[in-house]
Amino acid sequence: MRDSEALLRMIFQAARAAGVSRDALAAELNCPPAFLDNPEGRHPHELQAYFWAALEKLTGDVEIGLSLCRHLPGFDGHRLEYVLLSSSTLREGLMFAHRYRRVLSDAMALRLVDGSSGEHLEIQAAAYEGPQRRHTDICVVYAVLRALRIVPLAAPPSRVHLAFEARLSPAVYETLFGCPVVFAAPINRIEIPPGMLDAPLPLADPDIADLHRRMVASKIAPIERQDIVDHIRSALYARSLTHEGVSATLSDLAVLLGVPERRIRDALGDSGTSFRNLLTEIRACVAEHLLRDTNAPLDYVARAAGFMDRTALSRSFGATRGLPPLRYRRQAQARARRAGARTRLRDPEDVLQELKRNADRRLITDRIE
User: Fold this and answer.
1) Beta strands at 109-115 and 43-44: parallel, antiparallel or unpaired
2) Which residue has the higher pLDDT, 177 or 252?
3) φ, ψ for residue 118 (rounded to 5)?
4) Per the CB 3.0–4.6 Å rule, which of 9, 92, 100, 208 could disulfide with 216?
């Protein structure tokens, strides 16, 4: 699962607005500071857990998601917002927002349910497990509540249900959300006042709505192609790390996935890459972890990442990362020290084992359709 750059950018901007140091956060996340300014492309959904854990550590705020809500940027022209605003009613807009939700996040889901006490909107904000998930939940529920306010003269939501326990006084949450809050619910949901979903929206325009929907629908096909590439990448990563170095072949991968080699070539070609390029990127990624988190010699890094020797490592790493391996190591470790983030160097074998465990968790075992 992946999140769009629009979702990540909104959260990063909120953190900066709340006074979080960009460099300190980048060092804690082991990523270039520029990534936090402009996180181009779609990124693994699981990164949210690392992001929130880093924010908790840097701020000491056990409810950092709640603290960031007031700093979330407002309407920023995202495609789904246009779809919602130009719809005839909120019910129609939410239906299409759910249909095209993947342009924002693969993990998000909105579902209208007609219960015994009236209609409510169920919200799945995240798919990863862990204590940090509550932060994603809070921010998404807050953003949805803010979107619901486009209905003129509508009564506020009757009640918000959150799928976790309160860490602060309930009054703090109720003040933010503008209505009573129930905790430890089975699922996040918002109780909708009668008539709110079918009230006409002020900017409704059928022609504009149709245009926006077709534009959003055109963005789904690349996402579906990316699904196949992610599947292949996870399988290749997992297969590679079971060997001495990253040395899996295309035939290895075809056997693991249960598909012809040509199917893999075609899928990668449709997404603008190739098996060779994908393998090169994975080798560079393994090298990056070992350079950043250990002091392993270059000969060891080259062998573990699947390069013939340190010269091949330097040539490939320079081409993909823009600087020689040792300079990358010095800059990454110096950046971590300046930001006061974790600087303890690790055993390289432990790093490789962690990469293997993470690859195994990400690996999708279903066949590519």
Assistant:
1) unpaired
2) 177
3) 115, -175
4) 100
Q: Which of 170, 150, 149 is nearest to 161 (CA)?
A: 170
Residues 369 and 258: beta-carbon distance below 8 Å: no
pLDDT, tens only, 300-339 = 999 988 888 999 999 999 998 899 999 999 988 887 777 6
Q: What pLDDT does residue 247 have?
A: 63
What pLDDT was estimated at residue 367?
A: 38
121: Cβ contacts below 8 Å, ≥ 6 apart: 94, 110, 111, 112, 113, 144, 189, 190, 192
Output the CA torsion sign for 327, 284, 8, 81.
Answer: positive
In terms of residues, how long is the chain? 369
Strand partners, 161: 182, 189
Pairing mode, if any, of strands 43-44 and 2-3?
antiparallel
> Quick one: residue 195, left, alpha or beta (phi over 0 = left, psi -120 to 50 = alpha)?
left
Q: What is the pTM of this model?
A: 0.70
Q: Where are the beta strands (DSSP E) in the chain?
A: 2-3, 43-44, 109-115, 118-124, 159-161, 181-182, 188-191
Phi and psi of 367, rounded to 5°?
-70, 155
Q: Are 353 and 314 in contact (CB under 8 A)?
A: no
Burial 92-129 (b: 16+ CB within 10 A, else e): bbbebbeebbbbbbbbbebeeeeeeeebbbbbbbbbbe
* Half-sphere CA count of 1, side-chain side, radius 13 A: 17
Q: Which amino acid is at 24?
A: A
Quick one: tokens of 225?
A: 């192609």
- The C-alpha angle 62, 63, 64, rounded to 5 degrees, equals 100
- B/e letters for 13-35, b = 16+ CB within 10 Å, e = fewer, are bbbeebebebebbbbbbbbebee
> What digits encode the pLDDT tens for the residues 110-140?
888 887 667 899 998 888 777 778 999 999 9
Amino acid at 30: N
CA-CA-CA-CA torsion for 72, 73, 74, 79, nearest 10 degrees?
A: -110
Residue 77 class from Cβ within 10 Å (0-12 exposed, 13-18 middle, 19+ buried)? exposed
For CA atoms 271, 231, 212, 214, give the dihedral sign: positive
